[in-house]
């Protein structure tokens, strides 16, 4: 771990409430270590930013687009009085200064900076998603982050980085469930909002029929709150219901309870050859998105007051929309059925 003493450049420039944030850094062109050092130095010299510590630098093989040099990756912990959007602008400015070029997706770059965590902020809009939507499937993020902040709690999963990294390693060792069997199914408004106070935003009869058609006879994976939202808090009929919950005393008739990502993956191996559907809620979607191959999205062309959002797949380059129905109208609402497929690639 690289612990940095603050040189005072920005001390008098810090104002307002301070937030602890974590930034992932990577480089695989030129003098990689020099690029990372320069990026950290530029963060240090930014008004409203104080670099607290930086992880060791880890060499990682490229994935996705493999015809390129190895990466050098690290994570920096900072304190900042900036907003998340202002910090995003700073990161983009550093990339521009260090001459990052975006020619090949997931291709070589002199420098790459990504906001991983920003306090306890949970944000999902057109320009920024926090926590970073792919950090839970990236060892080159979890390993350095675990080095400098093992007790930090992920605001969506409510687990420490130490726990999440341990689960990641166990999943890799035991072998993941085939992505071709893991699907997501969700209804979202035009802003990717999916719920409020543990309730769906809207119920459209055709969407409910589509959900039944896809999931009947299949395995459905959900969180405890999603189960509680069903009539009588009872599992869905004619499906294998698996509930991911931290409550180890939880029991419900006709459902299987698992208490960690590792337990879930071990349980899912018992259903080889059967399609499995992740059906909510928000934290479960985010946790399992990296393990899914297909997403069925009912997009409703309306904006609702909401407190729970699905990840905007249109912002993730590895997800591509492969089909879209004609626009439909029911219950006074316009909507479409869309299907997304995950493409090859594995960089942030």
From TrEMBL:
<keyword id="KW-0067">ATP-binding</keyword>
<keyword id="KW-0289">Folate biosynthesis</keyword>
<comment type="pathway">
    <text>Cofactor biosynthesis; tetrahydrofolate biosynthesis; 2-amino-4-hydroxy-6-hydroxymethyl-7,8-dihydropteridine diphosphate from 7,8-dihydroneopterin triphosphate: step 4/4.</text>
</comment>
<dbReference type="GO" id="GO:0016301">
    <property type="term" value="F:kinase activity"/>
</dbReference>
<dbReference type="GO" id="GO:0046654">
    <property type="term" value="P:tetrahydrofolate biosynthetic process"/>
</dbReference>
<dbReference type="InterPro" id="IPR024072">
    <property type="entry name" value="DHFR-like_dom_sf"/>
</dbReference>
<keyword id="KW-0547">Nucleotide-binding</keyword>
<dbReference type="GO" id="GO:0003848">
    <property type="term" value="F:2-amino-4-hydroxy-6-hydroxymethyldihydropteridine diphosphokinase activity"/>
</dbReference>
<keyword id="KW-0808">Transferase</keyword>
<dbReference type="GO" id="GO:0004146">
    <property type="term" value="F:dihydrofolate reductase activity"/>
</dbReference>
<dbReference type="InterPro" id="IPR001796">
    <property type="entry name" value="DHFR_dom"/>
</dbReference>
<dbReference type="GO" id="GO:0005524">
    <property type="term" value="F:ATP binding"/>
</dbReference>
<dbReference type="InterPro" id="IPR035907">
    <property type="entry name" value="Hppk_sf"/>
</dbReference>
<dbReference type="InterPro" id="IPR000550">
    <property type="entry name" value="Hppk"/>
</dbReference>
<dbReference type="GO" id="GO:0046656">
    <property type="term" value="P:folic acid biosynthetic process"/>
</dbReference>
<keyword id="KW-0418">Kinase</keyword>
<dbReference type="Pfam" id="PF01288">
    <property type="entry name" value="HPPK"/>
</dbReference>
<dbReference type="Pfam" id="PF00186">
    <property type="entry name" value="DHFR_1"/>
</dbReference>
<protein>
    <recommendedName>
        <fullName>2-amino-4-hydroxy-6-hydroxymethyldihydropteridine diphosphokinase</fullName>
        <ecNumber>2.7.6.3</ecNumber>
    </recommendedName>
</protein>
<feature type="domain" description="DHFR">
    <location>
        <begin position="181"/>
        <end position="342"/>
    </location>
</feature>
